[in-house]
User: Fold these one by one.
Assistant:
Number 1:
Amino acid sequence: MKLNELTIAQALEGLKKKQFSSVELTKACIAQIKKHNREINAFITVCEEGALEQAKKTDNLASKGDAFRGKIPLLGIPIALKDLFSTKGIKTTAGSKVLENYMPPYDATVVEKLKAAGAVIIGKTNLDAWGHGSSGENSDFGPTKNPWNKAYVPGGSSSGSAAAVATDMCLGATGTDTGGSIRTPASFCNVVGLKPTYGRVSRYGIIAMASSLDSIGHLTKTVEDAALLLNVTAGNDSHDATTPIKEVTDYTKKIKDGIKGIKIGLPKEYNVKAKIDSSDIKIFQDLGAEIIDISLPHTEYAVACYYIIQPAEVSSNLARYDGIRYGSERQNFGEEAKRRIMLGTYTLSAGYYDAYYKKAMQVRTLIREDFIKAYKKVDVILAPVSPTAPWQLGTKADDPLKMYLSDIYTVTANLAGIPSLAVPCGFSKEGLPIGMQILGPQFSEETLFKIGYFYQETTGWHKQKPVMRVKKENG
Amino acid sequence: MKINVKDVAKLANLPLSPLEEEKFEKQLSDILSYVEKLNEVDTADVKETSQVTGLKNISRDDSTSSSLSQDETLANTKNKPNGLFKVKAVFEE
């Protein structure tokens, strides 16, 4: 096994036993990026020099002994960051030409925390510009390709992060999820994606999309790795007033406790039984979980509600890009950003506010109440991530509404502010990955990890990797 | 058509090409027709949800701390006469 193919947990173990150094681990990831990034387009910026320098530093720290390690839980681990995360002195583009040359003067809180935890920042990953998209095709720097079949989309908007983790270009990667942007690409690339509870992880320094919906999470090779990263990123931040002062537990502690007695709800509106294999549901029952049919009656209004609230907040957040203090002129926004700015400006304008925005905020209350009621009966809800398997590049690009409708199963978690863990659950007949999500009440991440871990260990879907071939140049 | 693209673009300070204007008029009207689906929902006594944390009046100590330097703040702009941002005139002479 090559070093870059290790999980975070495995690499931490190997580093601790001095089987290899962080420099060797980082070099293995960079070699993999050099080999495959040209065809996959997962990275916008690769920080080769900076990463190796950082890795050398962590190797020096590691030589100071194990007592040190407890305080630096990710010591020496190469992590990629979605290019929405501000990184001091590393170009941060948001996938948009507007910020093509933007060099942030400070680190996002999450970046600060990852660095303090010893992580090595290996590069900045591609995305739908500003996070606007479900397929990865809206990047102003070209679409990311699905590593399982390069004619297909990898899912978006955290497209580069998903493809980079799936192809072992890094050990884990950060993402943002405003309406499914972590869970969809995780599912389409066969990796694990965590969208935490709104407010669990600080948004400070992460380029804002829709501020009442943005959740900061990550994509990893295993559920255990997702817990390890949340241990570092979660918690209150005085720079983000939506992060409660709430204890961050060690999310790995109860991960192997089993799922006996856990009540799992299947919402009839999500078509779960048609989308998720009955054998998967039986897996949960066999280990003592109880399956209960539930209803989330306002599901059919979720996409309409989301595509009023989200563009409204987008239009307000993108108003700051005036080309004066940083970034270029507003005509450099790509087509999707322009569409959302227009839509949001319209629904917030005088005379239309009540009919659209206010109405959507009221429907949001009903969607949220659906979940609160459901969680009185069940501990978690099981649902598909995407209504379809990955589609071919270009097939939805000219029909924005069709693209928006692919978010039907993911936007609800953002509207309700609840956490969701996406795990690989098999392959389509074309051989493309499919994922399912486990949704819990606010701050139930520990339970989600327990269920996800158990499912992952039983099925092993996450262990399947895309076959990567390198095309010969001049050949 | 539901939306006057030219007016909205002006409100949004967003320069659009004639081609974009035409394309967006159709696409945005389709999207608006779809989201009007919400009119089917009775929301007569329903409160609005603008945030989901339940947190209220979050404040911090009124104390000073370090911030970005003038050079750092100006690092991403091309036009910085005398260490200031240069903007278009707001008032006519």
Number 2:
Amino acid sequence: MNKQQFLNELEEILELDSDTLQGEEVLLEIEQWDSLAFLSVIAMADEHFDIIIQGDRLEKIKTVADLTALVEEHLSA
Amino acid sequence: MTTETAIQPMNFLGKRILITGASTGIGRACAVLLSQLGATLVLNGRNESQLEKTLSLLDGEGHHVAPFDMSDIDNLCGWVKTISKQQGYLDGFVHCAGVQITKPIRLFDQQFFDQTMHVNLASAMAITKGFRQRRDKNKPGAIVFVSSIAGLIGQTGNIVYGTSKAGLMSLTRGLSMELLRDNIRVNCVAPALVATEMAQRTQQELNDMQYQHILDQHPMGIGQPSDVANAIAFLLSDSAKWINAVTLPIDGGYLAN
């Protein structure tokens, strides 16, 4: 999975149109970012990258770019 | 109270029991307890080295490990028959194998549904199919499924797992009637949160507040694997010979809260 595909997965979770996320968006300002989106991101990272993003770590994330950085080393070019 | 049964109500001497999911958690606790009660065990699990560890914890002799993929549904029946042929007559089985993945409905897909349902529910049916064939109907058989209170309550993000566990409860009732003629009892336990590797994973996936909320719903704290194993051993034993089709919550009062 590359960065764009990751963002597309995130858009799916947040029920946004494709290719709308740029990176600088603040998660708390996205209307659909709620506790279920939170759980969904953890499940998605586990399924696609075989990593567990710890709940407390994800809670400290502010932007979409921060979130991407969390899984960056697992993304392909 | 002078009978031997009253002195040792859960005596498994001379009985051979198959335990799935025996490599960790509740399955491992079951294996240890049933071996202490005299049973000879066949241990199934995904992780062979962990199964060997469980084996090293057992009392008594004659136990075996038998790894097999619980999602290989069409071959499970034959696998059970082979175990019976090679290791000896099975008096009972405990189905602890299961997978739990927290996923809200927005991430639902067929692969996720199939995997959870195959490992948690269809495997129970396939093993039962193998277990009941060519039995000596003079010998009582007993089955215990490990369900979950997730099958009795609503839990956010846990819908497919909860559905599979509710399915086990329904399966318990149906099989208990269908297998009367085979002299097999079928019961089920429904634990709340138990201190297992599965629970550790759940804790990692949640933030402190979310996990504390789960803990607060357990009036007596979370359970230990041995708390569930004790109930399973009872339901499996001849002491429970008039108990059939039951789903027993093992929840430290969770459902009363």
Number 3:
Amino acid sequence: MDRRSSVLADLFFSFMKVGLFTFGGGYAMISVITDICVQRKQWLSQEEMLDLTVVAESTPGPIAINCATYVGCKMAGMSGAVLATLGIVLPSFVILYCISMFLEHFLEYRVVAAACMGIKVGVGLLVLDAGLTMLKKMKKKPQPRIIAGCAFAVMLLSNIFRLGISSVVLMLTAGVISLSVFIAREKPVCKGGEGR
Amino acid sequence: MIYLELLMGFLKVGCFTFGGAYSAIPLIRDVVLSYNWLSDEELSYMIAVSESTPGPIMVNLATYVGSSQAGFWGAVLATLAVVLPSFFVILLVMNLLKTVLKSKYAQAVLQGVKPCMIGIILATGCYMILHSCFPLTQSAKVDVRALLITAALIACMSAYRHLKKEKPSPIALIVLSAVLGMILY
């Protein structure tokens, strides 16, 4: 086996291991990916891994997928990216597909339905907790606070009164508003700074 | 066309979620409920299943929803739809956009999107709890059992955080809430 195909195989199986043995998604996976890519395989430096975490957070999609694509592409170009991403997705896909075949009518059992009522509260709390953690990390400035507050109010009202306002529309609106505020603020600075 | 709906719905999820899995749940809930794929109860059950199986939660959810709605190809399409946006965005970032993402304009947009997302996440969390505790559709206006579960879970979470100085694992919390549900209902 030449060097390139051994790197490809290594990428595929390493990320398959990540996909197979990490529970809880997102940030739980980052610690495992760091362990494999930085400590064991030395595909990335510690600093690069930090950069990657920031990029993964500020680009859309599941964080683990972002990491896999990045590492794969860095190590072996396009085919590396494809194999690493496939590796991390495949275990999930196979496991969940099998589960969904067996559990289709699971909810009809009384016990399961009762457990679900409890889980609904639990998941609500987890979502709320994730939101609060992000809120704590948010910059303590008026603008993000206002945006977050408005989004909170609009979304809650929309949920309660079934207005059907889509969260995508809401996010795009916030992006546009923030960009226009930024441009409006920047203009006078640009005029003043012509001599730079 | 269920296939097209699955593809569009989960592309939306893949394109517009930042951060961890729990920040994706509001958007997934939005999409899944608006297409009438699942009820709120079924969705929370699926979240619990996705949480307790290995792998990225979003991918798990997509496979599960896709397969339950349209069999094998539904699962393939939904999974692809959730994965492809982040795959291509990262390729772009690595090759062209490294500077664009750092540009002040992109940052300005992100600075609007992120707080908005935090607001949406908080609202969804509140609503999910409120909706369980005060189901306006049923005959009883207040669900005492759900209130009890909420109180018990909050107590456990804060006690754990106080004692161990770290967050309890989401899996443990979900197992606990399931057990409480089984006992009380």
Number 4:
Amino acid sequence: MKTKVDQLTMLQYICILVNSTIGISVLSLPRWGATNAGTAGILATFIGLVLFFIFLMAILLITSAYPQHNFFEIICLHLGKTLGRIVTIGFSIQYVILTSVIIREFTEVMATTLLRETPVEITIFVLVLTVALSTQKSLIDYGYINYFYFPFIIIPGLLLISLAFPSGQYSNILPVLGNGITLSKIFITSIDIVILPFFQIGLFTLFLVIPNIKRPKKALKGGVIGWLIITMMIMLMTTVTYAVFGVEQIKDEVWPVLALTRTIRLAIPPLQRLDVFFILFWVITGFTTIFSGYLIATSFFAQSCRMSHTKLPYLFSPAFFLIARTFDNHVQLYEFMQQIGHITFAITTSLLMILVIITLFKKRRTANETPQ
Amino acid sequence: MARKKTRSNPKQTDALNTMLKQGEREVDPNLSTNIDKLEGFFDRDSDFTVRPFKLIGKYPAAIIYLDSIVDKKGINQDILKPLMNQQSNYSFEALTFEQIKTVIYEELIYQTRGSEETKWTSIIEHILRGYTIVLVDQIKLAFAFDTFDVAERSISQPEAEQVIRGPRDGFIESLSTNISLIRFRLPVPSLRIKSLKIGQLTQSKVAVFYLDSIVNPSLLESVIDRLNQIKTDRVLDAGYIEEQIRDAPKSPFPQIQYTERPDVVVGNLLEGRVTIIVDGSPFGLIAPATITQFLHTPEDYNEHFLISSATRMIRLIALVLSLIMPSLYLAAISFHPELIPTRFAIAITSGRTGVPFPLFLEIFIMEIAMEILREATIRMPKQIGAALSIVGVLVVGQAAVEAGFVSPLTVVIIALTTIGSFATPSYNIAIALRLLRFPMLLMTTLLGLYGFMISWIIISNHLLSLRSFGVPYLQPLSPGNWNDLKDAIIRTPLRWLKYRPDALNTKHKQRLK
């Protein structure tokens, strides 16, 4: 029996959701929209977030039927044991790949900002080791860690937005519907955005959190609040980046939000260059997302073997390391990110759809069975 | 008259039993046989004393004690004098065995604490604890009276926890005096003092203090449980216990607070914590402890809340700076010179011209020099300590800079770091962060700001997963708690502090009924 102390509170759950979703990929986010949809990129990002919300609700619906069960148990209940195990291990592998991509993206950012001469292998190795070290801790520690880091992620983000806001130009974000772009193109762009690995990681943290939450009935409320915070942060950041740079300049930047930090300047002498300070906080942001991805991968695997994830933190580290170091540069990385994103997104969507349909049927049946 | 039964240690009992032959485990009616047996056991120890006398001038008897740990005046006045009083008109011949016992116990002797013993093991244990044993010929019984008295130092101001405004008394080595200091401040019936004996050889008395009406029973249970599980031959100070009952023995961070101040103990008891005091140690252990507690001083509650809050924040900043300052300095100069404004950069480079070492080596050398200096000053007698600090300041500070050995800015940074760690009220947490400064410095040397951030994350994650008796170490920062935040980093007005810390799960949350 879990005691009160061993369970996550709603605030911790919101923090996990927000920290896992807002990751290092936010730095490149405005570029995806700008390249494919021009000024309509802002709208596309928003539609992407709405899609994200729909997926969030789907997971909340699936878990609401079995609030005490973990991912593997839910899948087994719906699809049977053998298939359940295959699917769970499959998802574990999927998250190894997605997280490795983010690890590489993180090291690419580090390589361009902080460690220009250090080989990426070392950066990757240190990061994977740090995350593995943290994965040894229990899920409740995961909640504490995310709760603690939440302000370090939100406050610098808001600071960045408010400092960059004055240099933005209203005309840069217009027209909101884009120039000569069809609605379907905007929609495709928004799918391109929502397939980004960090959204998928944020989404699946729910499967880890909800079985351990103190009041499962509040999961929906927490999910909505979490989504609102994510949407606010991402939309503000994207809009301000568009407003400051305009579409054409965003297209030229690999990480437009990072470029945004370079434009900020305070008159106080030691703080003339703020970008490095922001990078320090981006390390935390990146860490929380990668930590969640790593935890999802190891937990799913551990669940399918019916053991605790704390026992195998180092099992996957070579896989993360090897996948993350295969890319030659960020161009290749982002190409792969789109491809793998589309595939995993299709898999996730189909699985969630099946689960939602089964859940709805089961719910109707139980509703019919209960005497009026 | 209070009679107290003392439990004997099974191991020692075994050893004694093998020494004493079968059938001789109990007191013999013959006085001289008994004395021989005890003399054999103590083997003419220099302080072992046997004083034969005639009970009310008629019956052969003897008192036995270790004269190094007894109050001789008390023995003369309250044991020997009444027992040898010839004016006494008792005639033991007419009395039964039971009646003699009662007469000696209830009518003759003036001692508050005494007992009747028949087993040798227990008699020997009593002698070793400063009791005086009275043996009477033809009586198969020994009377033990508490005459324990050893030299104690007087109550003085705690050296390690001085305050400007606050009580000046501190614990001493004697447990009973320490208990009196706590009782004096906390005259409530629900104060419980549970006594344990720990250490197979030393049999040290350990007292667990708690307020029955407040403390969380499961916390108390786990404290007692962990104390009972301690396996050691000796407990010479509170530290021996602290190490064996903490949640994560490998962590450098202290998970139990220690204090020399009775007022701190009382304050913590009232919040629902448990205090452990070992006989022979002037330190009380307070459990559970969270990180913010180590930044508090008793003065915080005496000064105005705004001032207390400000000083607490200063302490926190000092503590954090003592960990990160050298690493940040190293990262800024070696990896990210673009961070430094031009005017500063010129000053720094001119200071560094001629310094033969790379910066990280310079910092490492200075840090180690500083640690040596600190360690030396602690051990030195006060008079030499002053001379040493002058030498330290002159040699390490000025001469090293003038000789072009280190740059002035490095000296400033290292000095600030060291002072920062001394600004923390608790020595044990300051020393933990001082230690962690070195791995952090190493990581920064290798990986710059990235390495710095990674070590910061590792340290914070470690802190976030630490528990002290089940209470999260960073409570109330994470998991957050609004009520507990009122007295953590800042100190809100006392009238706002209506509730005891939530983290402790006390019986009565509200301080006032």
